[in-house]
Specification:
The protein is mainly alpha-helical. The protein has a single domain, classed as Rhodopsin 7-helix transmembrane proteins (Rhopdopsin 7-helix transmembrane proteins, Up-down Bundle). The chain has 13 helices and 5 strands. The longest helix is centred in the middle third of the chain and has 36 residues. It comes from Scomber scombrus. GO terms for molecular function: complement receptor activity; leukotriene receptor activity. It is found in: Cell membrane.
């Protein structure tokens, strides 16, 4: 923890701190190199992938469902944050922050906002699926266009407010690593241990544990309902639903585990060997786990493409739009309108209502 320099460039508003929890956060060569590689791949895949989704919805989709509106918001959020990854790639590659203090605060604020927006949008999609499958007669009333727009606006306002700690607790500072090399880092600064516990615990509870619990509960009830029907074309749909849940948890869980490790470290004395171990784990893993979290923003286009692969040959570049419209042809050649919940033949009214509502909300063939 020693070796912090107090020589600051006179033209910059950099800060120092007596005992920050993240000294030399980019001094681990392996961690930062791996993180830069992951972010590079994320950038190349995520930017065009999310732009393609946005284009498919705005230019090629003939009608919008609730799920389509939520996916459009998710793609806009993910596409925007993917475009900003170039700054973090440079940061990790140079192992030094070169963009100034305002950009340090702004970029990490936007990343934090994207984290909340992504999980909240996925949660809204899961709740919409739950109502459509379990209470199909109420879905039209509860998810009217005006209500959905109001919910989305409220969600974005809430996201911006919840991300404020990233503006308050992050600054550029000068650090010296174990090799006595001075570097500028964009890192959290907490004057008191309770500030550390508040920020990281709040991120994990509000941005992962609570919404993810809603998602898992919703999908459990959805699968239970689908298994009670006689509509047997839902096997691939079940896999698709589980893939969404597992994918999100897989990429975000390591990030939140590191958050909890950081929180746990603050409960030990400064000279405790346990605290030193936990601090080392958090500092050496933060770059990689943050990069893994970014993958979730570029994985959705891949998942949608896999889900819509049966449309590619017939619809060409419009295949994604056809998926979002929720219109497809079953194996027997019968058309189903997945927005009205009616089918021409093959299932009972009750089963077709539940099955078609499930299909409307992302359950594809």
């Amino acid at each position: 923890m020693n070796g912090r320099t107090t020589l600051l460039p006179p033209t910059e508003n950099f800060t120092t701190l007596g005992n920050p929890e993240d000294d030399s956060v980019v001094s681990n060569d392996f961690s930062t190199a791996l993180g830069a590689l992951i972010l590079g791949l994320v950038f190349l895949l995520g930017v065009p992938g999310n732009l393609f989704i946005i284009w498919s919805i705005l230019a090629r989709a003939k009608r919008y469902s609730v799920t389509t509106m939520l996916i459009l918001n998710l793609a806009c959020a993910d596409g925007f944050i993917m475009a900003l990854t170039i700054f973090f790639i440079i940061y990790l590659a140079k192992q030094q922050w070169v963009f100034g203090n305002p950009m340090c605060k702004l970029l990490f604020y936007l990343c934090n906002a994207n984290m909340y927006a992504s999980i909240f949008l996925i949660t809204l999609m899961s709740v919409h699926r739950l109502v459509a499958v379990v209470f199909p007669l109420k879905v039209t009333f509860l998810f009217r266009k005006k209500i959905v727009l109001r919910v989305l606006i409220s969600m974005w306002v809430l996201v911006m407010v919840m991300s404020v700690p990233s503006l308050v607790f992050r600054n550029v500072r000068l650090d010296k690593d174990e090799m006595n090399k001075t570097r500028l880092v964009c890192a959290p600064e907490h004057e008191l241990p309770r500030h550390v516990r508040f920020q990281y615990a709040f991120e994990t509870v509000a941005g992962f544990i609570l919404p993810y619990a809603v998602i898992v509960t919703s999908y459990v009830l959805i699968l239970k309902r689908l298994r009670q029907t006689k509509f047997r074309r839902n096997v691939r749909s079940e896999k698709f639903i589980l893939a969404i849940v597992v994918m999100f948890g897989l990429f975000w869980l390591p990030y939140h585990v590191i958050n909890m490790i950081q929180v746990a470290a603050e409960w030990y004395n400064e000279n405790s060997s346990t605290r030193e171990t936990l601090d080392y784990i958090a500092k050496s893993s933060r770059a990689v786990t943050s990069a893994l979290a970014f993958i979730s923003s570029c994985a959705n286009p891949v998942l949608y493409t896999f889900a819509a692969k049966s449309y590619i040959r017939q619809n060409g570049f419009a295949f994604m739009a056809r998926l979002f419209e929720g219109i497809s042809q079953d194996q027997s050649g019968n058309k189903k309108n997945r927005f009205t919940g009616k089918t021409t033949m093959g299932t009972s009214n009750a089963d077709s209502n539940s099955a078609n509502c499930a299909a409307q909300n992302g359950d594809v063939e």
